[in-house]
Design brief:
Layout: H1 2-9, H2 11-25, H3 27-30, H4 38-56, H5 59-66, H6 69-97, H7 100-111, H8 117-125, H9 130-156, H10 165-196, H11 198-222, H12 231-258, H13 263-273, H14 278-289, H15 295-322
Helix pairs in contact: 2-11, 4-10, 4-11, 5-9, 6-7, 6-9, 6-13, 7-9, 7-15, 8-9, 8-11, 8-13, 8-15, 9-10, 9-13, 11-15, 12-13, 12-15, 14-15
Length: 331
Amino acid sequence: MKVISVIKKEWFLVGMVLAILLAALFPNVGKSDGVLHLDIVTTLGIALIFFLHGIGLSPSAIKQGLKNWRLHILVQCMTFVAYPLLWLIFGHGLQAIFPAALAFGFSYLFALPSTISSSVAMTSVAKGNIPGAIFNASLSSVLGVIITPFFVQIFMGASSANVQILATIIAIAKMLLLPMIVGQLVRPILIHFMERHKSVVNKVDKVVILLIVFNAFSNSVVQHIWSNFSVFTLVLAMIVCTIVLLAIATLIPWLSRKLNFNTEDEISALFCGTKKSLAAGVPMAKVIFGTNPHLGMILLPIMLYHPIQIFYCAVLANRYAARFNSAPLPK
């Protein structure tokens, strides 16, 4: 009975482990364009999350989130200053212990923007500052279109990528802003329904995250990310990714408290500032590196970092969420 009670209480973390195991056993089921078409399902799930955010957020909360300039500076500095500094400090060491292409893959990882979907979803699960997370995750993605190729050129000598900024902004708007705007428009109609079914609504983010984990791990298994390199190289690369994540995930809360952030802002800073975007990283890499035969090795760090960050941040989100008592949605 105690085991069942623990599983019910920690069903999200149990689900994370099961998602990884299922991806290892049945990758063709969870892969993009697989039987479940999780690439489409998770995209719709993300849209649903933002739609629900649009309903749940009061206009005053949105305005407050946009004005929180200290939060915005911290998140963008962590993404585009702290991470690149890691390469400047430890780059030579990474080149000494890894093959050149894999070592430069870490410089590419450090240059990437933050994620949008999982950053906002994790912030929502942890009961953090959702408007602040939405603003910063979106801003990071737009800035990354310019900053990432710039850093790649500095770190690796690659030519700049011809990425269409307007197309990126439009894509972000369709994925993020449109569902939120629709949610805001129907807020007066659905806000009371959400309050009555809050226990169910609060589980939507977690379910979508579990599907994202299943999809991400399934794709990595299908693409043989785990078999194309020696076990030692894979383990060492995973250790480096984990150390980097833990270091940044420790630094951000420390800085947040030094800056007297409230818990909600600390959560937003943590989940936006630690993430690196696989969704943006893969297509940008294809443009930047073209037909480079070492593209798979260059992408390995972000492929490893992506599921690690989702799993660890999900654990942190669950811990933060446990600190909050349920409260009615803002009117």
